[in-house]
Amino acid sequence: MFVRRAVADDGPAIAGLLLRAAARFEVKDYPRGWWPDGIEVLVAISDGHLVGWVEGVLDGAYTGPGAPVPPPHGYVLGIVVDPLWRRLGAGRALLDGFVAVARAAGLSWVFLFPEEGEEVAGRVAFLRAAGFEAVDDPDEEWPAMGRWARA
Fold first, then answer.
1. Exposure of 102 by Cβ count < 10 A (0-12 exposed, 13-18 middle, 19+ buried)?
2. Which domains are assigned to the chain?
């Protein structure tokens, strides 16, 4: 399994993954292989099959308390791994890949918000294992989580 930047030909497979494994995400223009300028899209590939996706921006700004550096920040908007590939390292590899892209762009810190709702504690545990730590925000039960991108 390896992670790389998505190309237009990945669009239909990304849309299929989202519909199959995370219907709450919009497929947007992925079926046509399009995504907005400024959106970083990475995919995890195994044996020629797309098994995971992460989407984010490199001009995010976490404005709540506890951001360790001023913006811009990397901001992970969404991550989905095929259910058959969960707990096999694809999610961690996708997050590592996004952090590496942020580092290469000169950013020091990446953040995200764990999706709330059912199984949020499991998502937070996964994110902690992937190197993300809760940002100090006393007003939030499930605050933003961040990870250093610097080497």
1. buried
2. 2-148 (3.40.630.30)
